[in-house]
Automatic annotation (TrEMBL):
GO cellular component term, pick one: plasma membrane
Organism: Microbulbifer pacificus
SUPFAM superfamilies per UniProt: Multidrug resistance efflux transporter EmrE
Ranges annotated as spanning the membrane: 33-50, 57-78, 84-102
Biological processes per GO annotation: xenobiotic detoxification by transmembrane export across the plasma membrane
Swiss-Prot/TrEMBL keywords: Cell membrane, Membrane, Transmembrane, Transmembrane helix, Transport
Sequence similarity: Belongs to the drug/metabolite transporter (DMT) superfamily. Small multidrug resistance (SMR) (TC 2.A.7.1) family. Gdx/SugE subfamily.
Lineage of the organism: Bacteria, Pseudomonadati, Pseudomonadota, Gammaproteobacteria, Cellvibrionales
Protein name (Swiss-Prot/TrEMBL): Guanidinium exporter
Bilayer topology: Multi-pass membrane protein
Compartmental location: Cell membrane
């Protein structure tokens, strides 16, 4: 169950990053509230997952999910650039996440 909590925590990290961008520096109320609520949920689920998942593994996977998720949202929603170097960087992040998970088995 801890891995499920960690995955949801990572997904919430993507939501709060997106909402933070939409808040325009916390000047818009609804995205600001979504940011704060999803931040709290993400941190709480990360803390719950860390009861059984090692700190380094949990934190690495949580931030990796957030980084890759934000990268994909940036491309799909904000039309951020897609080029070979950015794709390679994303592949390296995912590779690191897979290795971290495998090393924790």
């Amino acid at each position: 169950m801890s891995w499920f909590y960690l995955l949801v925590a990572g997904a919430l990290e993507v939501v709060w990053a997106f909402s933070m961008k939409q808040s325009h520096g916390f000047t818009r109320l609804t995205p600001s509230i979504i940011t704060l609520v999803t931040m709290i949920g993400s941190f709480w689920l990360l803390a719950v997952a860390m009861r059984t998942i090692p700190l380094g593994t949990a934190y690495t996977i949580w931030t990796g999910i957030g980084a890759i998720g934000a990268f994909l949202v940036g491309i799909m929603v904000f039309a951020e650039p897609v080029n070979a170097m950015r794709i390679t960087a994303a592949i390296l992040i995912v590779s690191g996440l897979v290795l971290m998970k495998l090393s924790s088995a």
